[in-house]
Amino acid sequence: MEMTVMQRLSNALRTQRAERAFGIDALSRIVEGYLPDNLVAEVRRAAEFATSVHEGQRRTSGEPYVYHPLAVARTLAEMRMDHTTLIAAILHDVIEDTGVSKESLALEFGADVAELVDGVSKVTRIEGRSRAEMQAESFRKLLLAMTKDLRVILVKLADRLHNMRTLGHVAPDKRRRIARETLEIYAPIAHRLGINVIRTELEDLAFAHLYPKRYSVLQEGVSAQLGDTKKLIREVEQKLSMTLREEGIGASVVGRQKNLYGIYQKMRRKKLKLLKVTDLLGFRVIVSKVDDCYRALGVVHHVYKPVPQEFDDYIANPKANGYQSLHTACIGPGGHKIEVQIRTRDMHHVAESGIAAHWQYKQGAREGHKQPQARAREWVASLFDDFGNASPLDFIENVKIDLYADEVYVFTPRGEIRRLPRGSTPVDFAYAVHSDLGDHCVAARLDGVLEPLNSTLVNGQTVEIITARHARPNAAWLHFVKTAKARSAIRNYLRQQREDEAVRLGRRLLEIALRELAVPASVLKDEARLAPVLAAHKFADVEDLYAAIGSGQRLAPLVARHFLPRDARAPDEAGNAAPLAIEGTEGLVLDYARCCHPLPGDDIRGHVSVGRGIVVHRIECKHVKGRPQDWVPLAWSEKVQGDFIAELRVKAYNKRGLLARITAELANAEASIENVQMPDRAGGEAVEMRFIVAVKSRVHLARVVRRIRRIEWIERVWRA
């Protein structure tokens, strides 16, 4: 009882703190600072609507669920986003977690809000899809929504940020999975879109949850190495500010310790120990004009000695996300290496907010703020151009490859700049210019010198691709290309080659099977004989049929039997026997897998097994997860009859007469019991029983389960 009271007190205090930080009033105070009163009223109305529809829902931490969407909106309000984005953030979970539809949301708050909320919502569960496939499909849906409105990703990133801030209340396994997903997908997306204010916090939070010991050790090591960080930062800020002022350059200087995940990544990338990582501090010099950036650079180098070969001009050569700054490294006080970034105020807004800069300041963003948005649209559009037809898992893999790119700048023979991921090769360059150039490249000249195709490109090189008409992509290229576009193009070519080979193999196998049945191969050219066979197997033309046979999706002997005259087929094929259970298995031995007990109505696959014929499995069976080419797609016949075995597990309170009640319900549901397994020892509050039952179909089994669940002692019933 005492523990319950303490928990209630803890939850109450947590709710009070959340109310102060993330309640409607707290959000309104921020929004009132930059939006007119009528739009503030709309934001409040959305908050009240969310409070109503989320009534009774609570987060894992115990606080009311509505504080989460309000916290998401607060993050975006602090970035000064427009009222449509704020309303979408407040309502971002209502389609997924409440009974509110997209249509009713559009009527209440407008089509733009409804589209943004729908873009953030996960796809509904699809039968037969794994968790990974569903997550990948939801991610593709999110990116597709970005092609229409980039604000959808801002809502998603703010959503992920608040989830990461409160991840401590989640179970450890789920916590690690979410943290890994954040590091692999969402933090890189924030980086790609230039939203560094969110990216750095996502990285550090995910790092702390995924590798808590490494995070703790690194945090202590950095503190020990820097000593009094605040004093050191204040000294550099004051000295640079004073010197810049003396030179007539109006500037603000802000120092900070670099984020721990960035330090960790540098240690891994360059194989360094912490003592060798000297640039743990970074400083930003913010000036008014571009000319002042280069003047300030001279002042910085005069005050602190620059480190050779550690200067980058991202003003002349902006990054793909629109980021612009001058970067230099210097030796600061006490021999500490410091990094200095010099940029204008406009560049700083873009560097911190990326695509969000376009909507900031009452829609009054300057023309330069539109550039990150245009670049982001081009990037998302290119993803769907290159990988739009890929499977969900392949799509997300290609996006990850594209996201992890640091950049190298090279030139075409005409002097045009091309940005490529660091580590790219001439093959990547060729595909970046044009797919045909990549498909036919044989060698490259780098700064006029003939080099192999797997050479690594470096900044400033001029790349000339040498082609040959007969040349084609090579599978070995997949071992060294870096860009997702090149990898996708090579795989598509190789896949097409495999399909062509599958067509040739399938035709050969079918001709052999026809010969064994004494059917002439000429039937394959007889449209009258061919049409019913194609219709039976649901193929548009004979090439698709050959490809299916060659890739193992159809069995040549089974297809060949369809070319026999009706009177020459087996009795069951002529319709003189019981109806078939599985379509297209005439004359073949069928066996039903005991590992998953498939029922009519289940999605099924078949495996050809020596001595057992075709073994039928449910598609979600763990044994179906293997090599796809080893499995044959199957479908239940519409006229299937007979009883099929299913396994039920029942967890219930151990009450007298429990088994009798269950068996009575099974009998009433017209299901027969083949076997029952009870726990060896009686006693205890709960027992788990295993029933092997015979039913007609999946629908029949569902009816059986519903009847058992009516028993008041039942805790859970599930199909094994």
TrEMBL record:
It is an enzyme of class 3 (hydrolase). It catalyses: guanosine 3',5'-bis(diphosphate) + H2O = GDP + diphosphate + H(+). It comes from the Bacteria. Pathway: Purine metabolism; ppGpp biosynthesis; ppGpp from GDP: step 1/1. Its EC number is 3.1.7.2. It holds the Pfam family HD_4. InterPro entries: ACT-like_dom_sf, ACT_dom, Beta-grasp_dom_sf, HD/PDEase_dom, HD_domain, NT_sf, RelA/Spo_fam, RelA/SpoT_AH_RIS. Residues 406-467 form the TGS domain. Residues 65-164 form the HD domain. GO terms for molecular function: GTP diphosphokinase activity. The keyword Transferase applies. Keywords: Hydrolase, Transferase. Residues 647-719 form the ACT domain. In eubacteria ppGpp (guanosine 3'-diphosphate 5'-diphosphate) is a mediator of the stringent response that coordinates a variety of cellular activities in response to changes in nutritional abundance. Belongs to the relA/spoT family. NCBIfam families: spoT_relA. This is guanosine-3',5'-bis(diphosphate) 3'-diphosphatase. It comes from Sinimarinibacterium thermocellulolyticum.
